[in-house]
Task: inverse folding
């Protein structure tokens, strides 16, 4: 009997050893075989041109969906912007990345971004991003946001009276940029006068389109122009910072009047204050993140409301009830914003179909497995908003404009991600919600409109915009 047990245990040990050996052997030798399926494209540039050009043609989702169909609906391998990369797709991909932030992955920006913002190599590092995230809530916390509503409405009124009223036709996109940039300049750096705002906006326009580009620094390339523009803006910001420091010292400026004052007067846990260039870089990043995204969203709201009269009617009805409840000259407030439920559902559906950010990159901190494939340490990982937003598994009839998707508890977790998710989720989400709703209020209260180019092309570079700036014919409501 004893011999039987000894044989049984020996047999068991042999089987387990064999299994372990097999697993170990497979792990050692098979690493490259178990990379996600896909191709790496041309030497050096990889598949960057396909990646960028599907966007220029207005269909950034095509790059993703073609490869999801060919290789795997969860993850595929590619080579983007000079880096080996894996694209994670679908709700499971989003969940994995958002839940493993700073554990298996960390934020990563393409070289083009790091070169346009020389110190953003630090800014995008874990510690700098944490510092920034610690500081932002003070500026973007609910009490602060509630104070901004009146300021935003006041600027919206000035914007509509100078840019839209008494005009038969307008080009919407430049106006939306002007609107969101005016608000950001006022709230971030207290620059409010239209001529000063316009002076600052000019280089920003150049900067945005060179940011996510092939980093070729030759005269005339978008990348080269972006570097020059960022230097010009940094100079302007440093000049404002220097003056602000004097004003703060003389009591002419308040430490809480805007985000710039806040950054200049807040020290870190070691009592250290940020230097001028650091403050300038952080504000530059915020101005970019905080105005281009929202201006693209506002532009597409105008586009969809022109195309869908019944949706326009719903928004108009809701906004006029609010407008009619106000005393003459009374600015919008927090309660009014809470009543804009249908309008926000409409804005959410616009952000689903025309997300301002197409996705973002991460870097693998160590080798790990995802969906049965190995992701080597140092690889870049891209998550794509469209891989869920336009995926019939996540949204039925994904191309249909349907704001009721956001009724009740709304879309399933990790499917609706225009603001990202996890620890790096957009800290400006609520700020963006306010400026978008205040824009919608002021717009539909004044006008109906129709598109002047029926099938205007959309270009995504890096945000979606109508190629001709969305010219519309305006019809003012009768007083
Ligand atoms: C419709 C408007 C907006 C959209 C769609 C949007 C979208 C996003 C997304 C998707 C991310 C996450 C990127 C990632 O996963 O790496 C992000 C991050 C960020 N957003 Fe926004 N955003 C908007 C408006 C704003 C505004 C108004 C601000 C500032 C007031 C802002 C500031 C930031 C910052 C600082 C980050 C980086 C957070 C970090 O890395 O920890 N965004 N945004």
Result:
């Amino acid at each position: 009997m004893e011999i039987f047990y000894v044989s049984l245990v020996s047999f068991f040990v042999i089987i387990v050893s064999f299994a372990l050996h097999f697993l170990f052997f497979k792990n050692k030798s098979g690493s490259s075989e178990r990379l996600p399926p896909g191709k790496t494209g041309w030497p050096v540039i990889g598949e960057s041109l396909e990646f960028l050009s599907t966007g220029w043609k207005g269909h950034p989702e095509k790059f993703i969906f073609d490869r999801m169909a060919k290789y795997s609906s969860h993850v595929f391998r590619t080579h983007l912007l000079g880096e080996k990369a894996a694209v994670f797709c679908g709700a499971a991909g989003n969940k994995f990345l958002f839940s493993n932030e700073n554990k298996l992955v960390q934020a990563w920006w393409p070289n083009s971004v790091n070169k346009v913002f020389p110190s953003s190599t630090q800014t995008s590092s874990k510690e700098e991003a944490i510092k920034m995230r610690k500081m932002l809530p003070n500026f973007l916390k609910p009490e602060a946001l509630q104070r901004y509503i009146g300021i935003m409405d006041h600027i919206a009124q000035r914007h509509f009276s100078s840019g839209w009223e008494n005009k038969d036709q307008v080009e919407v996109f430049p106006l939306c940029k002007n609107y969101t940039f005016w608000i950001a300049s006022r709230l971030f750096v207290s620059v409010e006068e239209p001529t000063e705002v316009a002076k600052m906006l000019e280089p920003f326009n150049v900067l945005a389109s060179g940011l996510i580009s092939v980093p070729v620094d030759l005269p005339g390339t978008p990348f080269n122009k972006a570097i020059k523009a960022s230097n010009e803006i940094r100079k302007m910001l440093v000049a404002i910072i220097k003056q602000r420091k004097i004003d703060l010292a003389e009591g002419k400026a308040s430490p809480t009047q805007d985000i710039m004052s806040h950054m200049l007067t807040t020290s870190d846990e070691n009592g250290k204050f940020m230097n001028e260039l650091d403050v300038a870089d952080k504000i530059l990043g915020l101005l970019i993140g905080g105005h281009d995204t929202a201006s693209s969203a506002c532009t597409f709201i105008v586009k969809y409301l022109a195309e869908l009269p019944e949706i326009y009617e719903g928004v108009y009805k809701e906004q006029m009830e609010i407008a009619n409840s106000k005393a003459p000259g009374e600015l919008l407030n927090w309660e009014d914003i809470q009543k804009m439920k249908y309008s926000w559902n409409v804005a959410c559906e616009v952000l689903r179909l025309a997300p301002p950010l197409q996705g973002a990159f991460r870097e693998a901190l160590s080798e790990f497995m995802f969906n049965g494939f190995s992701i080597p340490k140092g690889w870049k990982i891209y998550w794509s908003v469209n891989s869920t937003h336009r995926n019939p598994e996540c949204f039925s009839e994904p191309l249909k404009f349907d704001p009721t998707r956001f009724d009740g508890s709304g879309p399933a977790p990790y499917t609706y991600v225009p603001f990202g998710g996890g620890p790096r989720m957009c800290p400006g989400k609520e700020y963006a919600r306010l400026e978008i709703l205040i824009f919608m209020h002021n717009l539909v209260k004044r006008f109906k409109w129709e598109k002047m180019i029926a099938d205007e092309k959309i270009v995504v570079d890096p945000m979606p915009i109508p190629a001709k700036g969305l010219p519309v014919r305006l019809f003012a409501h009768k007083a």
The pocket of protoporphyrin IX containing FE is lined by residues 107, 129, 133, 286, 289-290, 293-294, 297, 356-357, 360, 418-420, 424, 426-428, 431-432 (CB under 6 Å). Residues 222 and 463 are 15 Å apart (CA to CA). The chain is about 55% helix and 10% strand. The radius of gyration is 25 Å.
